[in-house]
């Protein structure tokens, strides 16, 4: 079991997203991996699509994934709660991490489409 790095939900597996932590750039120049559940990945993608790249974010805070201080955007996450079911909370994510999440999202959805087409027999060539 592993935990989602945004909502904390424990799952058998998470979707790896590469982030670049400024404090670790010499030790890990290729970036480090953070794990997101599918719900947080979808929510982050929704934020990525809604931001205007030319518009300056008025939020200045610390990114929850890479720790960089600066302009961030709110990502709505769903935190599991035993008494309430789900608690909606907003966390701050920077543009660079949102870009990385977008790349991961596209790759993840492509893999899902490929695997579903093979499961239904559409990926195989049938010879007569």
From TrEMBL:
<protein>
    <submittedName>
        <fullName>F420H2 dehydrogenase subunit FpoO</fullName>
    </submittedName>
</protein>
<dbReference type="Pfam" id="PF10621">
    <property type="entry name" value="FpoO"/>
</dbReference>
<dbReference type="InterPro" id="IPR018288">
    <property type="entry name" value="F420H2-DH_FpoO"/>
</dbReference>
């Amino acid at each position: 079991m592993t935990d989602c790095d945004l909502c904390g939900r424990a799952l058998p597996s998470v979707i790896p997203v590469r982030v670049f932590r400024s404090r670790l750039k010499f030790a890990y120049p290729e970036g480090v991996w953070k794990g997101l559940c599918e719900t947080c990945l979808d929510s982050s993608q929704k934020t990525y699509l809604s931001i205007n790249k030319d518009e300056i974010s008025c939020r200045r805070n610390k990114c929850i994934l890479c720790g960089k201080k600066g302009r961030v955007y709110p990502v709505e996450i769903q935190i599991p709660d035993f008494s309430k079911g789900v608690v909606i909370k907003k966390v701050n994510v920077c543009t660079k991490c949102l870009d990385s999440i977008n790349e991961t999202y596209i790759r993840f959805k492509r893999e899902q489409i490929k695997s579903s087409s093979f499961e239904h027999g559409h990926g195989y060539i049938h010879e007569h």
